[in-house]
Every structure is written in structure tokens, then in C-alpha cells.
Design a protein that fits this description.
InterPro entries: DegT/StrS_aminotransferase (IPR000653), PyrdxlP-dep_Trfase (IPR015424), PyrdxlP-dep_Trfase_major (IPR015421), PyrdxlP-dep_Trfase_small (IPR015422). By secondary structure, the protein is of the alpha/beta class. The protein is built from 13 helices and nine strands. The model has no long low-confidence stretch (mean pLDDT 97). Bound molecules: pyridoxal-5'-phosphate.
Amino acid sequence: MLLVSAPILGVPEKLALSKVIDSGWLTMGERVRAFEEAFADIHGAEDCVAVGSCTAALHLILHALGVGPGDEVLVPSLTFVATANAVLYVGATPVFVDIESTDVPLMSIEEAETRCTLRTKAVILVHFAGYLANREQWQRFARARGLHIIEDAAHAPGLREVGTFGAAAAFSFYGNKNLTTAEGGAVIARDPALLDRIRQARGHGMTTGTHQRLNSRTPQYDVTMLGFNYRMDELRAAIGLVQLENLQEWNEIRRILAVLYRRLIAERCPAVTIPFAEPRTSAHHIMPILLPRYATRQAIIDELRTQGIQTTIHYPPVHQMTFYRRLFPNTNLPRTEDFAQRELTIPLHPQITSPVAEAVVTALATALDGCARAGTAA
Ligand SMILES: Cc1ncc(COP(=O)(O)O)c(C=O)c1O
């Protein structure tokens, strides 16, 4: 089965893991610190904090910014559920905002304006599929209203602009991401005081960690805030350090494949549209396409599956999930809903070769022909 995404793991990762095991120290230590420095460096940031997941990163950022009960946070619904969940974790209210259009499926600034109230404290921008939101427009929007900008950069590691929009950016190193540590995440924040609060909250609010105490030979520590256990460990950091060396090259292969897919799909499946028609900076995390209205998505999914090609959907909208429908009934986001009904994600990862991309598009064209014929027959 050709998977939508697949990690690249090999001998360097195995060797790195063996070294950690041989060292006898598995929990957060020197490798986590080295990973933080290297990850910050590729983003042109002074520092960063490695954590257990992007979900933890989002939670820590909101917590450190003091967002809490009574506050509202603007979020897209076209995202993974973790974006909205993090807002609920701190007791604040996520306010769902529609996308700009099916061509630009990022949070609409006009819609965001209409959803702002005196309680709005922050906006979480998701760089959907790796394509960056418009930084200057959002900074103007946030400045005029005194809002924090938080980037959910789960799809966009390795881009210099990421982490420069506002307060902080959260990254994911989950197994299907551009860079993986199996589970893992990181926070970039330019304000050292904010990053310090996040670092301390990551480890139970303690003033020192186990490894630091070992090195300084003092068992003393204090707890000066309510914290969490959101630490990364040495095994993950060791894999991350190896992966990081390849990130820029892998992102470039993703970009070349996305260009190839755009050309092949325009030629062979002209009824299919591809979001982000205008060039825009991207880490090309996934390859979303929009099926024509006559196509039955499930029939396309099934046909591709019989040909050994996995497809997925990004995303079933969060506001339509049972849990969120119960919490916020009557949320209507027509552009998000239309996009989500027609979206299909086709395989995109650095191990895909040109002939494989061609085979995917050929299979897509065949499946669409089948739908067109079924429609004519009906
Ligand atoms: C946009 C987005 N935000 C947040 C997350 C959560 O990431 P993690 O699994 O690292 O908590 C994901 C993961 O898929 C995501 O795609």
C-alpha cells in the first residue's frame, strides 16, 4: 500500500537509539537540549523547548500566556481536533472561524473580525498542509485588538518565517509529520520570559530537572507554578537530531513532488482543483485536492485503495464532531463544510518517485472517469 505519508527511518536512527541505550540515560538530558538548539537554529530562533507532542506545546503556550476561563480563542475548524482541545484544556472557549475560500483553506481574516468580542484573547493560526498564513495581515489584525498570535505549525517545520508571527509556534513530530520522533513536539517563542515559563511548566513547574540536579550535585528544587509532565526523552531527541539533518532536503523533495502533481493533475484530471493555486511559502506537509461535485468521494477512495493507494481526508471539521456539536450547537461554517466534503489527500512524502506520482494521478483519472460514467448512466 502506498501510504499518504511515511517516515524515513534507517541505520542512522538505529545507531542514534543504540547510543542512547548504551549511555544508560533515557530521560530528558543532553540530547533533548541538543535537539532544542538545533531545531531553534534552523528556524533562526534563539531557543526552543522540546515537548511530548504538539498538543502539549499548544497547551503550554496558552497556559503560559495566561489564557483561561472567560477568554475566547479564535481557531479554524479545518484542523486536527488538538488545536481546539488545547483551548478547552485551559478553560477558555474556542471560537470556530471559517476558511477564506476553497482555494485558500486558511482562517479567513474577515470572518475572524466578525467573531471577535471583548473576551477574545488569542488566535491560533494553522498553516494548513504546510502553507503559511499571511503574516503581515494577521499581525495588523492582532495588534489592533491586542490579541496573541499562536501558530499551530504542526504541518510547517523548517520554514524560517514560522515562529515569527506572534507569541509562539507549536510543532508536531508525530509519525506522519515532515520530521518525526514517533511522538514529540516543540515550542518556539521569541520572548525569553515566555519560553522560560513554558520550559518550567513542561516539567511539573519545578525549578530544575533531574539531569540538571545530577550535574549540579544538588538535590534541591522548588515548584513555583502548576506544571505538567510534557517532557521529551533522549530516545526521541536522538531520532529527532538525525531527522533534522535531512529536513530541508526532504521539504525540497516534497515541493518538487507537489509541483509535479499540480502539472499532472491539470493535464489528466482537469475537473480536480488543487488549493493554493497562487504560489505561497509551504513545507508541503500533505497534498490536498478538491474533487469535482459530480464525483462520489467514497468511490474514488475505494478505487484508489484497490490499486494499492491510500487516501485520507483533511479534515473532518472539528465543529462537526459529536463532542464539539454538543458543546457548540448551531455552528455553521459553509466554506469549511464544502471544502471538507470534497477534499481528498493523496500520498506525498519524500520516498515517492516521479513514476509513482504518475501512477497515483493515472489511478485518480480512472476513478473519476468511473464516476462520470456512473453519473451519465444514472
Ligand atoms: C494541525 C495539527 N495540530 C495539532 C496536531 C497534534 O499533534 P500531536 O499529535 O503531536 O499532538 C496535529 C497532529 O496531527 C495537527 O495536524
